[in-house]
Design a protein that fits this description.
It holds the Pfam family ABC_tran. It comes from Streptomyces bohaiensis. This is ATP-binding cassette domain-containing protein. Keywords: ATP-binding, Nucleotide-binding. The protein has 211 residues and is α/β, with parallel strands linked by helices. Helices cover 33% and strands 27% of the residues. The strands form two sheets. The chain has a six-stranded mixed sheet with strand order 5-6-7-3-8-9, with helices on both faces. Strands 2-1-4 form a three-stranded antiparallel sheet, with helices on one face. A hairpin with a 2-residue loop joins strand 1 and strand 2. The longest helix has 17 residues. The protein is globular and about 45 Å long. The protein starts with 5 loop residues before the first strand and ends with a strand. It binds adenosine-5'-triphosphate (ATP). The site of adenosine-5'-triphosphate has 11 residues, from helix 1.
Length: 211
């Protein structure tokens, strides 16, 4: 089992002057699979985006494989180390087509193979905004598989099964929990959470371990 360890120490995140995440301390061993659950608006997405450098208004320490990120080069390294399945695509940004999303993994061939296995190969020429929610999640999962083929050792997935049909949820859970990486998955899907090694819960910006 591969993967990198992830360590957070006294992490706080803000949106403007509002604290969204407070005093988060977390140690995840290399290769562990961690489910991050909790109430809507409790700070899960914000915390994951901070790990990736997509939310910069934070304080504290986040180390991935022992490395911090401060410079643009270090943040670029962080994003290569961490595959990412977002809850929703960034509005108005590239890539626009499925094929461009898959190519952004750094391993377009492997991502395209995964897209075929996940049943969305015929949609790769379509603009992302025309895909259904479940088709888009399948495309992002395929991109993540490509990113891992390209060298990512951590997968951060934000509600990756929320839009999938029942069979798709089972299939995605199998794939996610079988990848040779450290997995942090934000989810409200109890079956997926139960398949992880640890379950953490966020409430009002604070984190606690529940299983
Ligand atoms: N761009 C933003 N600007 C201002 N406030 C924001 C922004 N994004 C999130 N927030 C606020 O930050 C808090 C945490 O939001 P976040 O999306 O991290 O929660 P979450 O736990 O992922 O929620 P959910 O389970 O509903 O996806 C919420 O109160 C939310 O309203």
């Amino acid at each position: 089992m591969g993967g990198l360890d992830v360590r957070m120490r006294d992490v706080h995140c803000w949106h403007g002057r509002t604290a969204a995440v407070s005093e988060v301390d977390l140690e995840i061993a290399a290769g562990q699979r961690v489910a991050l659950t909790g109430t809507n608006g409790s700070g899960k997405t914000t915390l994951m985006r901070a790990v990736l450098g997509l939310h910069r208004h934070f304080s504290g320490t986040v180390l991935v494989g022992g490395c911090s990120a401060r410079t643009a080069t270090e943040w670029a390294q962080r994003r290569r180390a961490c595959a990412w399945i977002p809850q929703k695509p960034a509005a108005g940004r590239f890539p626009l087509l499925g094929s461009e999303l898959l190519a952004s993994s750094g391993a377009a061939g492997e991502a395209a193979d995964a897209a075929a296995r996940l049943g969305v190969a015929s949609l790769t020429g379509n603009p992302l905004h025309t895909l259904s929610g479940g088709q888009l999640q399948r495309m992002y999962l395929a991109r993540a598989i490509g990113s891992i083929a390209a060298g990512a050792d951590v997968l951060i997935a934000d509600e990756p099964t929320a839009a999938l049909d029942f069979d798709g949820q089972d299939e995605a859970a199998d794939i996610l929990t079988g990848l040779p990486v450290t997995l942090i998955v934000v989810t409200h899907d109890r079956a997926l959470a139960n398949r992880c090694d640890r379950v953490l819960e966020m409430a009002a910006g604070r984190l606690r371990e529940i299983a």
